[in-house]
Every structure is written in C-alpha cells, then in structure tokens.
Amino acid sequence: MHLQQLSFLNFKNYTEAGITLSEGVNAFVGNNGAGKTNLLDAVHYLSLCKSYFNPIDSQQIKQGADFFMINGVFVKNGQKEVVACSIKRNQKKQFKRNKKDYQRLADHIGLLPLVMVSPYDISIIIEGSEERRKFIDNVISQTDNQYLDELIAYNRVLLNRNTLLKQISDTGRYDPDLMAVLDEQLALSGTRIFEKRRGFMEVFTPIFNQHYNFISDGAEEVELVYESQLLKDKLEVLLNKNLERDRILERTTAGIHKDDLSFNIHTLPMKKFGSQGQQKSFLIALKLAQYTFLTQKNGFKPLLLLDDIFDKLDEGRVTKLMQMVSNNDFGQVLITDTSVARVEGIFKAIDVEVQLFKVAGGNIDA
Ligand SMILES: Nc1ncnc2c1ncn2[C@@H]1O[C@H](COP(=O)(O)OP(=O)(O)OP(=O)(O)O)[C@@H](O)[C@H]1O
After folding, report:
1. Cα 16 to Cα 2, 13, 40, 96, 362, distances in angstroms
2. Is 218 annotated as a binding residue?
3. pLDDT, tens digit, 9 for 90 and up, residues 102-120
4. Which residues are in the RecF/RecN/SMC N-terminal domain (predicted)?
5. Which CATH number, 1.10.645.10, 1.20.1050.90, 3.40.50.720, 3.40.50.2000, labels domain 127-282?
6. Could you write out the DSSP letters of every residue in 239-253?
7. pTM reported for the whole predicted model
8. Could you tell which of 12, 51, 63, 357 is best to mutate to test the pocket of ligand 1, judged by most ligand atoms within 8 Å of the CB?
9. Which of 16, 38, 358, 364 has most ligand 1 atoms within 8 Å of CB, for mutation?
10. Cβ < 6 Å from ligand 1: which residues?
11. 232 and 147 in contact (C-beta within 8 Å)?
C-alpha cells in the first residue's frame, strides 16, 4: 500500500500544497518550523482521522482561515482509495472514502494503516500510564475493528459506575442490585479487552526484543512487561474485593483502565536510567515492532512516517535503521530532516533511491 498523491488547503502553516510521492523513500527537508511535521500530520489524518499531535481539530486550521481540507490518493492491492478529510470551524468533521461519507470514523481505522515515529513519542516513556495504554490501543485497533467499540463500551460503564459511587457517597443510599449489574457489564467488556491486550503483548514482545537488539547491536538489555491487575485475579473478583475502597474514594480502582507497560533497562526503569539515545532507541523499537506486527496481521506493509529520526542517535544506530530500509523491510517511508546533505549522504551510503522534497515557509518543492 502507498500514498500516491497528497494535497491540502489551509492546513496548519500551509495555504495550498500538493505533491506526488514515490513508492519508496520520500524525504522532506527544511529548516525548523518549515512545515515538515505538519505534512506528516496531514497523512496521519488520512489514515487515522485525527492529528497525531493535537486532539483539537479546529486548531489545525490555518490561522485566519475557516476550514481545512486534506486529500489523498492511496493505492492498495492495485486499487485507488481516494480519501478526503475536511474541518470547518464549529462543524462536524467530514471524512470521505471514494466520495462516500463515513457513518462512523471508527470504520476507517485500520484500512490504511500507518506507523508514526516522532520526538513527541517520548511521552510514552515519561508520562503517565494513559500514554502507554493509548499506544497499545492504537496498535490493536488498527488490526481489530471491534476493539475500539469494546473500549468505548467499557469506558461508558466505568463512567456510570463512578457516577454511582459518587451518588452513594452523596446520598448515603446504596443499591447493591444496580452495582451488581454495572459490575457484571464492566467485568464482561474489561475481560475481553484484557484478553486482547494480553494476546497482543505475547506476540508483540518478542518482535520488540528483536528490533531493539538489532538497532542497539545487543549493547544493552531492555525489558517490556505488560502489567494488569487482571493477570492476578478475575475482574469480577477485583471489583468485589475493592468495593469498600471504591466507595471511600468514589471511583473504580480496579480494571483495565489501570493497565500499564513497564519499560526497563538492565532491570531499572527506562524513564530514570535510560540515556536520551537509549530511550529513543527503545521508542523506535516499539514503533518498528508495531510496524512488523501490523504487516504480519494485515498481510501488507503500512506507511512508515519518521519525523526527525536521526537526532540523538549515534551513527551505528542510524546505520542499523537505514539497513532495515535498504533490506526492503519497509514499504513506503516518509522521513523528515533539517539537512539535505545528511539525508543524501545516508541514503547514498546504503544505495537507496530517495525522492527529496524541500519544505520552506509552507511550500513544498520536489
Ligand atoms: N493552525 C496553524 N496556523 C498557522 N500556522 C500553524 C498552525 N499550526 C502550526 N503552525 C505553524 O507550523 C509551524 C511548525 O511546523 P512544523 O512543526 O511542521 O515544523 P517542522 O518543519 O517540522 O520543524 P522542526 O524541524 O522544528 O521540527 C510553526 O511555525 C507553527 O506556528
């Protein structure tokens, strides 16, 4: 699968731009603030119906304009898929595939899979557990279209249960039957999500280890561990056990909304003991494992977007990464950097052809 054409109007710092991409490596080169990351984000919209960086759609509209539009022509299994996304201020997002509106945006997720590697991914290591759950959910939902519905259902019941806990505390009235109904619903969808996450991690972890070892050349030992209260007890048991505590705290303290991933380097937390380059290598390995996982599941290669990938990595690790590109492990790659000479040098060294685009002040020149 690849993106053949991309065009947009009033998207972030662009007024109007359009490009034709190569099926292999496409490099977008320009100074800081030129619009390279914005361009990758436009592609992210077409694949996942939203920005990678900012959940507020209206903030992606060019300052002073009142709408943005992104169009893309993808080629998948020899067939064209024309995708269009447009946002008008204070209006619902419009998303079309082959000129037909989607009823539910969730139906588009996974159709044109994509993996983004960005400096902002550092939040997966340094921020709270929500970021790590988002990572797992994002990967699974690109291969399993029931997963998102399952998550929505779980969050809805969780919200109802928390509201009930608060009401019990406010009014002093406790209806055990109503609580039992909510617990049953929560346990049902929570257990399904847990099983999917656990199954996913069993497949994903060895792929991740392989990628990390390759990039780091075995220089350090790292560990990726799925943590869930449900590994020890069934959710219905946990909800029961924690009921008194939940009533005091007025929120549900057990469930898959507490799941986390633990990242270690030489058995110590990556967040505190990993160097910037090791953390970056860890994140790249996570994302490349996502790439391999999606490829294996879907039977075709997703798009790979590498934003500012060379920064903080030593030469050895850059070479290893680029070796993967040259080994034909990847399909279409979109990469950004600030130096034409560096991009040309890296790809010349591995004898890979690269389509170079120069980005400056909201203009893209091939
Ligand atoms: N809604 C918007 N309207 C106008 N300009 C915007 C909007 N959103 C972002 N920008 C501008 O886009 C520019 C940032 O572009 P982008 O992040 O793509 O840069 P970049 O080329 O990736 O730079 P770097 O090399 O620093 O990562 C900034 O100048 C920012 O002000």
Report:
1. 22, 9, 15, 20, 8
2. no
3. 989 989 999 999 999 999 9
4. 3-341
5. 1.20.1050.90
6. HHHTHHHHHHHTS--
7. 0.92
8. 12
9. 38
10. 12-13, 30, 32-38, 59-63, 308, 336, 338
11. no
